[in-house]
Each structure stands twice: as structure tokens, then as C-alpha cells.
Design a protein that fits this description.
The protein is an alpha/beta fold. The protein is about 45% helix and about 20% strand. It comes from Denitratisoma oestradiolicum.
Length: about 450
Amino acid sequence: MKYNADTPAFPIPMTPSPLTVSQLNRLARQALESQIPLLWVAGEVSNLTRAASGHVYFSLKDDSAQVRCVMFRSRAQTLPWRLENGQQVEAQVLVGLYEPRGDFQLNVEALRRSGQGALFEAFARLKEKLEREGLFAADRKRTLPRFPRALGVVTSSRGAALHDILATLARRAPHLPVIIYPTLVQGAGAASAVAQAIASASVRRECDLLLLARGGGSIEDLWAFNEETVARAIVAAPMPVISGVGHETDFTIADFAADQRAATPTAAAELASAGWFAARDELHDLADTLGHLLRRQLEARMQKLDLLAGRLLHPAQRLERSRRHLAHLQTRLTAAVARRLRREESHLSQLALGLSRQRPAPVRLGGHLALARQGLLGAAQGLMNRRRHALERLEVTLGALNPEATLARGYSIVRDALGHVVTDSNQLHPEDVIVLSFARGGARGRIEHIE
């Protein structure tokens, strides 16, 4: 990259007033980001810090200098190995400046171990090629059999991976036959040996599930599983293939080509035996359930047997029990009849007593009748006397109120021409004709004067 010393690559604004520190740091950051492209930097990791946010902070140094670096969480999560102090790495970075503190720093986009850049590039190229061909397509993946009849293992016969696999299978599915296809897993010719072992298992068809396994190591140690010949042998295998290569953070081309990936060889063995292991637990549960049901059935049958045994009697015992029951019923019947007879006799006596009380007595009733006759006659005579005295009083009162008696004492009744009784002089006018009524006879007259 060439820079012209006379003309600044990044234009610096000329202002009459001084810049603030924030403005200066912003200008410096913009200048760095615009003038220095994405590049690779090699160095040793030191001062490594992992923040709670997931960001990773460290320094890259060489013999005479160091620079602060930050790898944000989104990038750090994709790192296939664990970053530690003292590692020699190559970092793909963007040069920048942290404005709040004015710190020059590198924003890390990718990391690789030093000297492994070519391997990573070869890995990426082969992965892209096979992916375009559809070898890694999800619809190509085959379903693992739940209950494999035999399990094939392609691995080193002297490696720790085989020991871990066999120990796991002995614990989880000891009945499952295991066929080992020994092969080189590291070094020159390892890839061809692995592919040949897979092809041998495919031709012999002794197993219905194949496990490809190797313990952890560096990318160089695992490179045999990044070869194209191994990936194509996995895809060509007639049975499903589980890849259990390396540790949890190790990814190989074989992992992408396999029908299913396991984090470790032990996890691959667990995955292969998952159906049998789950079936064993289910079988234990079913056995417990069946035992419980059988115990309940036996207990119910035993109770029913005890009940039937209690009901089972000798004919003589049954006859004797019936005789005692019949005698008891006879005693109860006799007592019930006797109680009923006594109750009916008592009721009959009460009815007879009531009838005798209701029988008529002529002599006693004749006396009552004479007394009633005398009382009735006396009451009638008294009523007649009271009515006669009242009538006499009314006659005297009526006589006193008779108008004729009043007229006999010298009074007269005055009526106008219409026959209305005159009780007030204001009812008359001069020359009015009046009619007078006396005790004997009457007279007519005319009004001359009103007083």
C-alpha cells in the first residue's frame, strides 16, 4: 500500500476552534477504518480475558510490540477450538480505535492457529465443493435404526476411542454385536485406509449401523477425516453412518457427510445404542407394571378364594344351619302372631267401651227432655212479655209524635198554594193564598201583611 506524504489519505477538517477529544478520537477511528483494509496479523495470545457478555479480549504480541484485540461474542462462538494464552495464531482483523479511551485495537473477524492457514483454506474449499454437490443435504441423511442388529466401528484398534466405545456399549447395550474394522486414523495413507475400511463394511454388510470414530487432536491429527475420499465413502455406504471424530469443538468433513454427528466417540456409542437403552428402561418399567398388576390379580383371587372357602359347607352343616334358621323364624312368627292378637284384643275392648258409652238411656233422656220443655216455655213467655212492654213504649212514643194530637192542643198547619208547609214568614208574600189545617176541618186565607 502506498501513501503520499504530501497529501493526507484521510481529509482532516480545518476548523478555527480546537477539536474536542471525542472529535479527535472519532477522526482517528474513521481514518484507520477507511485506510487499512481487512488483513491477517500473526502473533502470540496474551492477557486473555472472557467477559460475561461473551466477548473475548486479548493482546497479540511479538518480540518487540503488542496490540489490543477484541473478538465479539458472535465471532467467538464460532471458534472451533478454545483460545488460550501462549498460542500462536493468525487473526483476520479490522484496524480500529476505541473512542471512549482512545485505545488502538484490532477487531478480530476470524482466528486460526499459525501455520494452519493452508489447511483451513483446503477445508473450506472442499466443504464448499461437496456442499454444492449435495453430499451434505439434509434430505440425503438417513434415519438411524432404533434397534440395530449389529454395529460396525471404523477406528484404530489401539486407540482410546475404541475402548470408550466398547465400555459405553457394554454398559448400555451389552447384547449388541460389535464388528470392528481397524484402520489407520492419522498420518500418511490414513484417509485411504479409513475409506477402505468403510468400503469393506459396505461390501460385507455385516452391520446395519456404522460408527466412524477417533479421539481428539489438532487439525493435522484429524486431517484424514477431512479428505474427499472419506466423505464419498461415507455417502456411498448402504447403512447409516455416525461420525464421532475428535472432541466437541472439532468439526471435520466427515461430520458433514455422515448421517449424524456425535461430539465424541462416547457420544457416538450412546447415540447408536439409544434405542436399545431406552427400550431397556421401557422394559424395566413394563416389568414393574406387569408385576404390580399380577400382584393385584393374585391378591384379588386370594380374597375371592377365601370368600368361596367360607361359603363352602358340608351338606350336614348346611342342613343344620337351615334348621336353626327355620326354628328362629318360627319363634319370631309365633311371637309376632301373639303380639298381633294382643293388640287386636286391646283395640276391640276400646271399641266396646266406646259403644257402651254411646248407648241411649230413655229415662235419663226423658228427664232431660222435660227440663228442656219447661225451659223453652219459660223462654217463650219471657220473650212475649218483653215484646209487649216494648210495643207499649213505642205506642206511647208514637202517640206523642202524632200531628193530630198537636193540632188538638190548638196548633194548626199552614201551607202555601202549592201545598208546601210554611215554617218561615219569609216564605210568604202579601196577597199569597194560604191553606190552614186544624184538628177538625180547615180554612183558606190571603196574606195581608208580613211581620
